[in-house]
Amino acid sequence: MAGVAPITVSRAINRPELVTKDTLDHIREVIARTGYVPNLLAGGLASKRSRLVAAIVPTIGNSIFAEAVECLTDRLGEAGYKVLLGLSGYPSSREDELLATVLSRRPDAVFLTGITHSPESRQRLLAAKIPVVETWDLTPTPIDMLVGFSHEKLGRAVAAYLIGKGYRRLGLVWASDERAAVRRRGFEEAAAERGVTDIQVAILPAPGNLKLGRDGLAKLLDGPQRPDAVFCSSDALAQGVLTEAQARGLSVPGDLAIMGFGDLEFAPYTYPALSTVRIDRRAIGLLAAEAMLARFEDKPVEKIVDIGFEIVEREST
Amino acid sequence: MAGVAPITVSRAINRPELVTKDTLDHIREVIARTGYVPNLLAGGLASKRSRLVAAIVPTIGNSIFAEAVECLTDRLGEAGYKVLLGLSGYPSSREDELLATVLSRRPDAVFLTGITHSPESRQRLLAAKIPVVETWDLTPTPIDMLVGFSHEKLGRAVAAYLIGKGYRRLGLVWASDERAAVRRRGFEEAAAERGVTDIQVAILPAPGNLKLGRDGLAKLLDGPQRPDAVFCSSDALAQGVLTEAQARGLSVPGDLAIMGFGDLEFAPYTYPALSTVRIDRRAIGLLAAEAMLARFEDKPVEKIVDIGFEIVEREST
DNA sequence: GTGAAAGCGCTAACAA
DNA sequence: TTGTTAGCGCTTTCAC
C-alpha cells in the first residue's frame, strides 16, 4: 500500500535509521492511516527472536513474587519484551510441564524461582540456549545466571540476632517450602553454636497465611516449651502469630518476640512491634531484567548477584 | 526422523485421536528420545491461533488484581493457553501503547481491567476480532464481554449500611482512581437521600497503601468535622486508617467505625474490628477464562456477568 | 537506500 | 489413516 517492498516497511518499523526520512514518513503515514499492526509471531519465526520472556514463579497472589515479576515486566517492557507468566504452584509441582509448554513459545530468556530444578528441566533449559536467570537463592553452580541471597546466612543472622537480644527459648513457625528449609538449617546451626538447641518447630503447608500462623503459634504455646521468641518463615505467618499472641493476651515483644521474613508492606506500619527481614524484591526483578538485556546485546554480565538482606528492627509504639 | 510426514507429527501432538495407535506410539517415542519441542510461534502463524491471552491490569504487586490474574492463568493453562502480562500502571496511563504492542502478538483473547478505554483502544480491539473481557466494573455497553460488579451500587450499599447503623458524620479516605470515583458517587447519593450530606473526603494518589491511609485519616480528624465512620476505597487504605486511629488512642468501632473494600486476606484476621466489602476476586479471573474458552468453541456465552459483592461485618473481639 | 528471493516451522485444505 | 502442496507474515541474505 505504501508502494514499497515489504522489507522496507520492516526496516521502517525495526531499524528506522536505515530508511530515508521521506520513505519513513510516508510509510508511517500509511501505517497510521490503515491501522496496520505488525505480526510479531511471524516476525519471531523469521528472526528467531520472539521478544518474549518467560517468568516462572510459584504464585503472584498476595506474595513476595508479585513485585519482582512487576519490576521484571516493567523493565523488559521498556526494551520491547513481553512477559509470559507461568505459575508453578507450591511446591513447584508443575514446573516441569510448565517449562516444556513455555519453551515451545520460544522465549528469548527465562526467569526462574529457586535453584532446584529437575534434571529434565535443566536439560531443556540448556538445550534452549537462552539466558536463564534463577532467583531468590544462591548457589555456586547456577544453570546460567543468578540473582538472589543466601537463605542459610539469613537464618544464621536471625538466630544470632535473637540470641544476642537475650532470647533463649526459640520457636519456628515454618512453611514446608524448600528455601524456608535452608533458612531453618542456618538458624538451627547458628543457634546450636551459641548453645541453644531445643528449638520448637511448627511446620505448616506452603504458602503461609494468617490462619496458619495462628495455628502455628497455638501449637508452640501448647507444646512442651513455651518460646520467648518466634521466627516465622514469612510475614504472612508472622501476622498470624502476632494475632494469636494478641488474642491470648501476650504482650509483644515483652512476653513474646516475633520475627517475620519478607517485609511485606503491611507489616511495618501495622505492627510496629514486629521485626522482620527485608528483601529487596524489586531489585530481584530489575537485576534479572538487566542481566537478560545485557546478554541479548552480548555485553558482559555478572553471573551471580547477591542482593543480601537486612534485619529490620521495629520499636513497639 | 520418525519416518512420517510432518503433518502426521503435528496430528500426533495436537489431535492424537486422528492417528493410529502404532504410529502415535512411535512418534511419541521419537519425540521423547530427541527432545523435540514444537515451535508454537510457527504453529500460531500457520493456524492463526496463538494460544496466547493478554491480561492487562494496572498492577499485580500487593493488589486485588493478582489473584484474578492467577485464576485466569490457571484456568487458561489447563486449556493450553498462556497469559501475556501487561501492566498498565495507575491510572491506566499506558494502556493504549500496551494494547498496541500486545495485539501484535496476536493473542486469542484479551482480559481488560475496567470499562474505560480510549477510542483508539476500542477500535483496535474491535479490529482484532477476538474475545475481549472487561472486568471489575459494569456497563450496559461492553466492548464484548464483561465480568464485574456495580461500583455505584456498592457505594450506595455501604452508605445505607453505615447510616442504618446510626452513623451520621461520614468520611471517605479515597484513592483517586476511576472506579473508586464511581463508588464515591453512589455513596454520596445514597447518603444524601438519607439526609446525610456533609461528607468529609481525603483524596489520595492511587494505588493506596498503609501510609497513605494514615495520612488520610489524619487529614479528616484535623478537619472541620470529625467523622464517626470512615469508608476507605481499599483495604490497604483501611489498614492505614485503623493504624492511625489506634495510634491516636481511638477505639474502633467505638469512637470510629472503619470500612474497607476488597477483603484482602490479612484484613479479616488481623483486625476483627474492620468491616469490609468482599469481592470474589478469584471468580473474576475464573469467569473471564470460562467466557473466553466458551467463545473459542463457539458456545453461547453470557455477555455480562455481575458477580456482586458482600458487606462483611466483623465483630470486635 | 531499497528490493528480490528464499525460508523460518508449522498447519489448512485437499488428495490418496 | 496418512501424505502433498501451499502458504501463514515476516526477516535474512545478498544484489543492485
UniProtKB/TrEMBL annotation, chains A, B:
PROSITE patterns for the chain: HTH_LACI_2
SUPFAM superfamilies in the record: lambda repressor-like DNA-binding domains, Periplasmic binding protein-like I
A GO term for molecular function: transcription cis-regulatory region binding
Keyword Transcription regulation: yes
Record key words, sorted: DNA-binding, Plasmid, Transcription, Transcription regulation
Organism: Azospirillum humicireducens
InterPro entries associated with the record: HTH_LacI (IPR000843), LacI/GalR-like_sensor (IPR046335), Lambda_DNA-bd_dom_sf (IPR010982), Peripla_BP_I (IPR028082)
Name this polypeptide is given: GntR family transcriptional regulator
Database matches in CDD domains: HTH_LacI, PBP1_GntR
Coiled-coil annotated spans: none
Residue ranges of domain HTH lacI-type in the record: 1-47
